[in-house]
Each structure stands twice: as structure tokens, then as C-alpha cells.
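C-alpha cells for Glutaredoxin. Go.
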Amino acid sequence: MASIEIYTWSHCPYCIRAKALLDRKGAAYTEIDVLHDSVRKAEMEQRAGRTSVPQIFIDGRHIGGCDDLHALDAKGGLDPLLGA
């Protein structure tokens, strides 16, 4: 099973959409809410090279944000990463 980390803000619609896709796939993930956590937000920015949320990592590989995750799924690349 893949290790998935998703950096989010609690009311971010893109975060909700990305998590919904992962939920539909049955993928377990660790959610890291960075809204009030400047240390974890800085960690996300350093790892991803981006300041926006969500930022998604699968097995340590940076996937990108919500649109990137959906694009990866649309071209059939998400399921193999999830081990599905």
C-alpha cells in the first residue's frame, strides 16, 4: 500500500476535491493541515517548491496539487502508484 501525504487547509475546496478522489480510490492518507502550523507549512514549501495547497506526495514522490492529481488519474497513472 502506498504512503500518501497531503498538505491541506481545512476549508480549501481543492483539498476537499483531492481527498475525495483518494477516498473514492480507497487510498489511506495522512493529512497535514498547515493553516495554523507555520513549521509544517514551511516543510511543505521546501518539499514541494510551492506555496499553495493541497500538495500531495505518494511514496515520497511529489505529485503536485489537486489538478495534477486528477490529471494523473485521467491518464491512468494514479492507480499504479496507489498499488491498485
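Residues 4-82 form a domain with the Glutaredoxin fold (CATH 3.40.30.10).
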